[in-house]
Amino acid sequence: MKVILANPRGFCAGVNMAIECLEEVIRIFGSEIYVYHEIVHNKYVVNKFTSLGVTFVDAVSEVPENSILVFSAHGVSPQIRQEARDRNIRTIDATCPLVTKVHTEAIKYAQSGYNIILIGHEGHDEVIGTMGEAPESITLIETPEEVADLSFPEDAKLAYLTQTTLSVEEAGRVIQSLKQKYPQIESPPKEDICYATTNRQEAVTELVPRADLVLVLGSQNSSNSKRLMEIGKTVGKPSYLIDGVQELNPEWLEGCESILITAGASAPEVVVDELVTHLAEKYQAEVETATIRNESVRFPLPRELRVLET
């Protein structure tokens, strides 16, 4: 058996920053702090911080007044920020800068009188935060078929934005449909789908023909991880999304000569290492790292923390 390790894989710059941010908050203030939603969409990471005493909440009302609250990498709406201020909660913003970019674009387009079409998954934390920036101006769609249901006039002032963790191919189909129906629609100066999402999808797309099976390390609520699994399925390869080696089904490996392993942008390398070690020890798997693209992006810690450190 051969294991092909896709590279790049795992943590992106935004996830790294958010996790480093939370670690630094714990170092400075202790672990009795709160995080709005999961810091990143990964069960291993959330369980690690929970074991240290961090409390993850789904509503600001769950946070005691005068506490410390960290906003997750997915971003929050202005309403959530105001709720925190009303409760005298000290906040530290670990929103990924690429998500912040989308928020800024939404505000700019809304203030300029545009109707904004947001391409994304309903209910995703990032989408909820972005829509909260201009709820009266944003319409959410997910598929090309939904474009046909849009009822804006032919000459409407329109712009589109995208969730940062979408499938590049699927988002492209929706954008193409939008441009066909509304040729005047404006796009952001730079695409919203993040570099890490694009790179990880590119790696799987290029490497999947060499594999009999695709294993993606990541959690079920991780949008970008699901996209990686779907790429494998699209080309007819058995593909599974698992949090770690404990979810590996031995039946999946029957008859497999080569396995492609990757990890979503919020999955830590430790879960990859555990899976690879298991396959090497139990199945004598030989491991090859296949590098498609190198990454060197790094985001600084939030300004609030940098001020405390100086």
TrEMBL record:
Keywords: 4Fe-4S, Iron, Iron-sulfur, Isoprene biosynthesis, Metal-binding, Oxidoreductase. Binds 1 [4Fe-4S] cluster per subunit. It catalyses: isopentenyl diphosphate + 2 oxidized [2Fe-2S]-[ferredoxin] + H2O = (2E)-4-hydroxy-3-methylbut-2-enyl diphosphate + 2 reduced [2Fe-2S]-[ferredoxin] + 2 H(+); dimethylallyl diphosphate + 2 oxidized [2Fe-2S]-[ferredoxin] + H2O = (2E)-4-hydroxy-3-methylbut-2-enyl diphosphate + 2 reduced [2Fe-2S]-[ferredoxin] + 2 H(+). One of its GO terms (molecular function) is 4 iron, 4 sulfur cluster binding. Its EC number is 1.17.7.4. Its cofactor is [4Fe-4S] cluster. It is an enzyme of class 1 (oxidoreductase). The keyword Transmembrane helix does not apply. (2E)-4-hydroxy-3-methylbut-2-enyl diphosphate binds at H41, H74, H124, T164, S222, S223, N224, S266. One of its GO terms (biological process) is isopentenyl diphosphate biosynthetic process, methylerythritol 4-phosphate pathway. Pathway: Isoprenoid biosynthesis; isopentenyl diphosphate biosynthesis via DXP pathway; isopentenyl diphosphate from 1-deoxy-D-xylulose 5-phosphate: step 6/6; Isoprenoid biosynthesis; dimethylallyl diphosphate biosynthesis; dimethylallyl diphosphate from (2E)-4-hydroxy-3-methylbutenyl diphosphate: step 1/1. The keyword Iron applies. Dimethylallyl diphosphate binds at H41, H74, H124, S222, S223, N224, S266. Pfam families: LYTB. [4Fe-4S] cluster binds at C12, C96, C194. The active site is at E126 (proton donor). Isopentenyl diphosphate binds at H41, H74, H124, S222, S223, N224, S266. Catalyzes the conversion of 1-hydroxy-2-methyl-2-(E)-butenyl 4-diphosphate (HMBPP) into a mixture of isopentenyl diphosphate (IPP) and dimethylallyl diphosphate (DMAPP). Acts in the terminal step of the DOXP/MEP pathway for isoprenoid precursor biosynthesis. Belongs to the IspH family. PANTHER family: 4-HYDROXY-3-METHYLBUT-2-ENYL DIPHOSPHATE REDUCTASE (PTHR30426). This is 4-hydroxy-3-methylbut-2-enyl diphosphate reductase. It comes from Gimesia benthica. The lineage of its organism: Bacteria, Pseudomonadati, Planctomycetota, Planctomycetia, Planctomycetales.
